Amino acid sequence: LWRPPTEDHFRPLEGVPVRDVGMLVDDFVAPLAELAQQLAKRVADHVSLDPTPSPTHLLEHLSKVQCTYERLRYTAATLRDHEVQIALFRRHWLLGMAYLLYADLSRESIVETVPSVRHDLLGAWTWDQRAARELYDRGIPVWLVRQLQCVPADIRIGSQVEFTIPPIDVARRLSYTPVYEGVIGRGSLLATIPTAHTYHIISRSPTARELDMDARVVTPSRSSAGATLREVVLPCPLIVAKPSTLGTTASRLSCSRSMLIVTVQVHHVRPESQTVNPAHGSAGRDKFAEFVHPWMPPSIPAWQTALSEVDRSTRPSSSWPYWIPEPALILGPQEIGRRRRYIINWVRVRPLWLSRLQVRDGPIEVVNSQMWRVYLNGHTETPQASTVTGRFALNTRHAFSDILHDEVVDGGDVVWHGFSFSEVPDALCPWVIWEVHELAFRYELIALDRACRRSTAFAEDRLARVFPGQSLWSVHHLPSPDSSGLFSPVPEHRVDALNALREVLARWPSCPPELRDASPLSTGDDVRTVEKFEHLVATVYVRTFYSHAGRPPILPHFLP
Q1: What is the DSSP letter of 557?
Q2: In this structure, are 79 and 93 located in the same domain?
Q3: pLDDT for 229 beyond 50
Q4: Max Cα separation, the chain?
Q5: Residue 440 contacts by C-beta under 8 Å, 6 or more apart in sequence?
Q6: Are residues 142 and 262 in the same domain?
């Protein structure tokens, strides 16, 4: 718990467009998993003994411990960021255990005699004399912070300690702005136990958070008269990461390179033709229709039907950007080399980009489909600032370089779910596209839930239950054919995920009564019942998304 990571515990990632980011070795992270499990068991035991009222603060500490561990386990970051994550893990683990200890002591009968002080405890401090008495009666060391003349006469003072002014060299390193002024109590605790980012390299990152204004981006639009400019209003959705999730400009999300779990078997991948349907690669592609390509995973009928049934008679005035590039965009180029370039460049930037979506200290870059095309195509030529298209390409590169430190995405092998390659093998391409669907659906669900519900209390915990291993922010490993999830071809294996998603949708004000009041599925339900429920869930989701986002959502797909 107190051991800081060193260079010996750090393994840099290879083949990604940012240097000095990596993962902590499993031997270092594994003991933290045991501590997280220990706290989870203690919390479960506590709740079983006294389920009401709900211990909100305790559950928040547990949630932050679990989220921070997941980030340490699956997020590529700088060594400094890993240090911050461990400090955050330690803080909330200790606060959670302190909560439980106090609850245990409170259940014990308080005797008349003064208990012995527990010297194994750090103790507490307060300005409230009643709180001081309660702590003292339980044998917990406590400092009563008050001016001597303000101490009630019935309190006997054992010893008095004056506050000391910090040394000058220490004061110089501290901020000149006090973090808190006032009496010692709840206000001081909230001020001195922040969960926001704590140093400049983190707080300057472009990120996703709630915005009060629309973001605007200028994109090139082709017409018969040539290139023109078109201004598109892009209301930023309300993605908010847990307060415990941190990230630096160089801290990103990635899977451990030791996670070679699945042997991928792809029987239906056909040899790639030289061209695809021209309509698929055109700007006029119908995004409500399924994109057909040999590498596109099978669509889920209930979800695709729900998408085709969306009422498009009223065209929204604005649309959300794409935090994850559209799978059809990646597969859209008619030229094979360009298509392969899109895929490998996405795989390279993927761990870094996902981390960007988790940081909360600033607005996320507004990225539309055209910007994704420019970036994923790579640095194949130098854009000309004298043309509209060239200026747009330069602006797109600047937007991405703010995130990626102006480093290019090329060269070297990259590790993806345990596979190492410099070009994505044909057999893995459907799996890459499947993961793009899965990631896009997760982040769009987060955004939509935040847009529909202003309260974020435990929202991410509910959302995480929709996905295997409660992995909300990333796909931890490629699922096996018998895995459970929305993506499973076996209806019975989709039941738990559908029930969890229904719990999320039921909290939205626009959720219809037929879904809000519907009984959860059971594993004994027949296929027709599961698919009917699935269609209802999908219909509510896609219609709500379209009304907020102004564009069709990216949907989950069956496994390749």
Answers
A1: B
A2: yes
A3: no
A4: 92
A5: 322, 323, 324, 325, 326, 327, 554
A6: no
- 75, 163: one domain: no
Q: Quick count: other Cβ atoms within 10 Å of Cβ 427?
A: 14
Last residue of a domain, one of 85, 108, 131: 108
The domain containing residue 480 runs over which residues? 215-549
For the record, the structure tokens of 323 come out as 């935090």
Lowest mean pLDDT among 71-75, 115-119, 205-209, 335-339: 205-209
Pair (252, 183) in one structural domain: no
Residue 353 in any domain: the answer is: yes
* 322 part of a folded domain: yes
pLDDT at 270 over 60: no
Co-location of 149 and 96 in the same domain: no
Dihedral, CA of residue 452, residue 455, residue 456 and residue 457, to nearest 10: -140
Structural domain count, the chain: 3
Q: Pick from 248, 219, 180, 234: which is nearest to 373 by CA? A: 219
DSSP annotation string for 108-168: SPPPSSPPPP-TTS--EEES-HHHHHHHHHTT--EEE---GGGS-TTSPPS------PPPH
> Do residues 183 and 131 lie in contact, with contact meaning Cβ atoms separated by under 8 Å?
no
Q: Is residue 375 situated within a structural domain?
A: yes
pLDDT, tens digit, 9 for 90 and up, residues 376-404: 888 656 666 667 777 777 776 766 766 65
Region of 182 on the Ramachandran plot (φ > 0 left; ψ -120 to 50 alpha; else beta)? left
Most confident of 40-44, 152-156, 199-203: 40-44
Residues 255 and 392 in one domain: yes
* Rg of the chain, C-alpha, whole Å: 27
pLDDT at 243: 30
Position 372 confidence tier, pLDDT thresholds 50, 70, 90: confident
Last residue of a domain, one of 90, 108, 126: 108
Q: Are 415 and 14 in contact (CB under 8 A)?
A: yes
pLDDT of residue 21: 82
| DSSP state letter for 452 | H
Give the mean model confidence (pLDDT) for residues 128-157: 81
